[in-house]
């Protein structure tokens, strides 16, 4: 599903554009995927695992997302650079079409500028516009206190834990927490 472009003012005074991804964003997205994977242990990939992402695969993903009726992706462009992205997806199956899954990541240079909040506001708006969706879901990794604070600010609450769900290169095991946000409509 395509989303209309909109501009936001960042906390540092710069302007950014949030919109559906375009073909011109492919290389920037590949760069963002690689960079963000090396900046934190809280993304489920290491930089060397990003070789699986190709321009062709990203184009196919963008095309699928932009034409889908049950998923959308947004990118945030700051000074011509892909700062991060988010996506919301929901099932067409009768038993699970009330559940939407969300995901978000930003490069470290763009943390604490208000982008994550705007991404979540838009994902919540999309969910609220679908009368079938009553619950949004996400997961985060133990220790990611910044993300948890954002998710709680946006109305998510912890509903479960997967013990030892993530194993870092050094052998450290981390839990993964599941959160939900109950969708309300005005």
SSE layout:
Blueprint: E1 6-9, E2 15-19, H1 26-39, H2 55-67, E3 71-78, E4 81-90, E5 99-106, H3 115-129, E6 135-141, H4 145-153, E7 157-167, E8 173-182
Parallel strand pairs: 5-6
Antiparallel strand pairs: 1-2, 2-3, 3-4, 4-5, 6-8, 7-8
What is the class in the CATH system? Alpha Beta
H and E string: EEHHEEEHEHEE
Q: What would the average pLDDT be, to the nearest integer?
A: 97
Radius of gyration (CA) equals 16 Å
> What is the topology, as strand order, of the major beta sheet?
1-2-3-4-5-6-8-7
Derived from helix and strand composition plus strand pairing, the structural class reads: alpha+beta
- Spans with pLDDT under 50 lasting ≥5 residues? none
What general form does the structure show? globular
Distance between the termini: 22 Å
Could you explain the architecture of this structure?
The chain is 27% helix and 34% strand. The protein is of the alpha+beta class. It has one domain: Gcn5-related N-acetyltransferase (GNAT) (Aminopeptidase), CATH 3.40.630. It has an eight-stranded mixed beta sheet with strand order 1-2-3-4-5-6-8-7, sandwiched between helices. The mean pLDDT is 97.
